[in-house]
Amino acid sequence: MIRRALLALPLLALPFAATAQDAPIRSQQANFRVTTFATGLENTWGGAFLPDGSMLVTERPGRLRRVTPDGRVSPPLGGVPQVEAVGQGGLLDIALAPDFARTRDVFLCQAASVEGGALTRLITARLAPDSTQLVGVRRVLDATPAQRSGRLHYGCRIAFDRDGFLYLSTGERNERARAQRLDDLAGKVLRLTRDGRVPPDNPFVGRADARPEIFSYGHRHPQGLAVNPWTGSLWEAEFGPRGGDEINILRRGANFGWPTVSHGREYWGPRISREVSAPGMQDPLHVFDPPISPSGIAFYDGAAFPGWRRSLFVAALNTPGLVRLSVDGDRITGEERLLTGFARMRHVIVGPDGRIYLLTDEGEGRIFRLDPA
């Protein structure tokens, strides 16, 4: 575990680290260079751009840092709560409130240790005016029940829709049956108001056998959430086992099938399910073949790469790299694999400059920036 006292130890800010790779890279719709934008990080997981152009970045061991527009990395911010930094757990995603410019509210997702084991936790706090610490930290939701065994599959991605509702993905903690249980918040995508209340139009409100926070269920390990800017739909990237990596469009009350239906296999070989589709279960929009172990996702409509407009970018952990999906409304029309084998990519973020920033899942973590060539 990471203790708050350790997080408060002063560290020197790292020098500007942006360096460009030599040769431009040609893709189907754009030529680009890879710039090493920032270094000196550890297992980066989530990031969010502030109005001043700097970026808040989470490190899975339990630290939150600010990276300036010229790539300098701050000491760890104060006020970050203790996390369960074991296995795949730790300090995971971060998102700014839609009205951050006025309130300075941020939301973070973490693995937390509680009586009975560990669970996915959503918290909120305010970023201090000098951006050096979090204040007013408050727990919003625990994805109960806690689980004693295993420290895997927390999910933990956050997104806000056009109406300001908050969505949180939770993994099934490597206990597959939990994904299909409606009295259990694991293996789900949850929909909340920003203060943690249940919207009255959630699909399972009023059912005695179901948790009212649930928006969709039957998920394994959802690590990507993003709102389609052209249609308003909510897209999800789901990390399968050996195969079975998916892109889904989330629907109210929909069952996405895990583990009853799956394109994936056990790590030792046999298929997990004989069926890849079943009545009453939502089929994936897209299945990656070969698999990529998808994590964070981001839609692109920026000015830096006109040829990449109307694309969805997917950070890939294994095989490491970046995947671009061509998008037409709520359809995927093509797939292009970029930077294959370059680095384990945990998240992809579109910056206010229209460039693409890639957070790596490495002990000596880096942030790469894609620049037009």
Automatic annotation (TrEMBL):
Residues 1-20 form the signal peptide. The keyword Iron does not apply. InterPro entries: 6-blade_b-propeller_TolB-like (IPR011042), Glc/Sorbosone_DH (IPR012938), Quinoprot_gluc/sorb_DH_b-prop (IPR011041). Residues 41-369 form the Glucose/Sorbosone dehydrogenase domain. Keywords: Signal. PANTHER family: ALDOSE SUGAR DEHYDROGENASE YLII, HEDGEHOG-INTERACTING PROTEIN. This is PQQ-dependent sugar dehydrogenase. It comes from Roseomonas nitratireducens.
